[in-house]
Request: fold
Amino acid sequence: MESENGCRATVGIADTWIKRLHGFKKKGLSRSVEGVVIHPCSSIHTIGMKFDIDVYFLDQKLRVLRVYPSVGPYRCKSVPGARYVLEFKSGEVVFPFANIGENVRFT
Reply:
């Protein structure tokens, strides 16, 4: 995945119910990914997580709608109109990966 400002990251795609349920806990995803894209998705939770994550909510055109840095365990976030959520373990990928209003793309 790449942002308009040139940041790149290897992401897994959580496009099944079980992958979405586990999210960034990586069950069923490759261990070599830096982040995860959850689709379809407009809300997330960090129940059971043991670390903070940076969360980017994206619309259908992959434009960043909202950014939540360092979301701690046992939190919930929701953005009406979001269709994708991009999650990174805080501190592992340059922050911000993308700013509000920027588009990201799959590479």
The mean pLDDT is 89.
